Each structure stands twice: as structure tokens, then as C-alpha cells.
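ok so i was messing around last nite and threw this chain in just to see what happens. nothing serious, just curious
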Amino acid sequence: MSRENGSVSRRDFLKTAGAVGIGSLIAPARSLSVAGDPANSTGTELKTIPTRPFGRTGEQVSILALGGAFHWSNLLLMKQAIDRGVTYWDTAPGYGNGHSEEAIGKYFLKFPEDRKKVFLVTKVDTFHTPSMTTSFENSLERMKTSYVDLLFMHGISNAYDMDDSIKNWAEKLKASGKIRFFGFSTHSNMASCLRDGARLGWIDGIMPTYNFRVMDTERMKKAVEACANAGIGLTAMKTQATGWGSSSHRLSDRENRVLNQFKASGLTAEQAKLKAVWRDTRIASICSHMTNRTILSANISAALDKRAFSNEDTEILKQYAGKTTSSYCAGCASICESPLLHEVPVSDVMRFLMYSRCYGERERASAAFHALPKATRSKMARLNYTKAERRCPQGMPIGRLMHEAVSELA
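result:
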């Protein structure tokens, strides 16, 4: 969640929610007060959240996925998730420096019968196949499992990087039983990655940045349809579409007025953003960054809420997107980076700023920033970004933000 009713920052929400309780921070959706409890007021066990087919794999996955992009240490959170039907779990070796995967391993050691209930996803982030093998084997060891259900190449920006060597490597893992399905995640050039991924003919699943800000462009609509026709399972991430470009967490009064319109529907803005994505039935699941049971319960409530997301609700998000365009990087890296001769990965650096400013994860952001080549980091402070800014569809102050990143993340 990036902001609750426009007045609490994501960082403050995450810090405060566990201490004061869900009712103090989350405006009541109709089913929210029930969703946070193991049983409703009549003592009847609540239903688990819905599932959808994951492309043509034959697998049904929960429409809400537990995102592990943090140091998981709360086994109770994981237990509550699985008991409520959040059985799609996503992680990666780099999340919490491996601690996320280690926590999953601790969970499976304690509850081994739950391994078969979980659709488990992890990632590799190198195209060097021997290194990929080492990374993946280490992931299996940390998670105390002999296989994963889905393995992603992490954070690609060009689907054609998925060449025959990668395909052959994945096929060997499938034959060995160590993975069931294979695909990639993408934070940048999402529409072209989806479109080209569908053309490859051997991708099982893709996890793109997909939210109310980017989902309605013609290119994205066509790309998602191409994946649906190819039988590729789609998992949406970054669905809260937090503004990546601003160092301020506080929304303006005008932005608050727009988002507060969801109160009439009994929804928080965060729940509305989830429901906007679920409205697209081609999206199998939403991977959500849920760091405590308060957020988990709120998201489960949204998943259980059977009210349709109306055209009026959609219009509210469109209004908000229009008023905050220049604070959000839409990941169209090829547009702004080409005038810079691709010397600076603008889209990636914007994402690092988002981790630091909006998630409150400065250490993670700084580590990602320092993983860039030293020469690239040095160039960032010297380059002229005028041409990139002129081409940016969002009208972002790219130069200022790149200089701020050098200062903030160093």
C-alpha cells in the first residue's frame, strides 16, 4: 500500500499498522472487518480467496500472491496467508539478501505438508547459464525444497534476451523435475516484453509491472491479449503504482479529494487499485508486497469482495493518474534511454528511488544502485538529460531525479 486514504505514507503505514490494529488505519470495506479474523461473527469459517487459471499450464493460482521482497521472519504471517488461500508465493535470491528464501525454508521445515499447497516462485538474475545454475541450486537449498513451480528470469527489458541457451537450460530443469514452469519478470518496456514473449512460443509465465496507470494504453492492451492468446500466465506486480519521482510522501489536497471518492464504495484507495487490476480476468494473480498481517487482511478483503469494480471507480483512478503523471515512471525505458545512448538505466534508477522513498527500503535501494557499474554511476552526475526529458511521455524531471539518486543512494 502506498497511502491510506491519501493521508498516511506507505512507509508510515507499514511501521504503524501492526502496532495499532487494522481498524485504525484502514477505511472499512464492507467485508474488511470480517477478513481480518479467522472466523466471521457467526463462527463460520471464511471462504478462501478465488483462483484463476495460470495461462494454459493447467494450474489454478490464487488471485493474490504473497510477495516476498523483504526479510520474512514472521512465520505466522505465512501461515495465515496459506490458511486463507494465498497460496501463490513469490520471492528471489536478492530479497533481503537471501533471507526471504531462508524464511520460506524455515516455514517448510515447520509445516512440510504445506509445500504441496504452495505455488512457489523464485528468480535468477543473470544470463550466464553456469551462474544461473549455481543461483538456482542455492535458492532450492535456502527454501528447503527440491523444486519450484515457476522460475523467472528477473527484470528483463528485452524478451529476445531469452535465447536458445536460456530455453535449453530451462528445458533441462523441467526434465529434471526441479521446475515446472519458466518465464520472466519485467519492470521496463513491459508492453514490448509481453508482446515479444508471446512470440517466443515457449514462455509459461510473465510478471510485468501492471497497474491502473499503464494497463489501458493500446500497446499494453494488445500485448496482454497476445499473451492470453499464447496461453501465457500473467502475474501483475507494482499494482499500487506508487509515484516514483517524488521525495515527498504527502499527497496534495486535490489528489486526496480524488482518492477519497472510493469511500462511497466502501473501499480504500489501495483496495481499489487491486480491484482495478483484477477486473482484467487475463491477469491470473497480483503479487503484493505484504509485510504484516494488517496489509494481508486488507488485501484478502479486497480479493473476497464480490462487488464489481464500476466504470465510475475506473474513472476515479484515471483522474488520479492524470493529476500525478509527472511523479510516476511508466517503465518505457527505450524512449528516454535511447537519447542517452543507454549509458544510464533511467527506468531502473527510478525504481530504486521508489524502493527508498515510497517503500522506506533505503538499504535495498542503495544495494541495487551500487550493483550498477561504477562507470555508469559516475556518468549519471555528468550527463545532460534534456533530450530524455523531452521524450518522456510522463513529463518527468529526469535530470533532477538522476542527480538526486546519485546523492541519496550513494
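not much to say yet. The first helix runs from residue 10 to 20.
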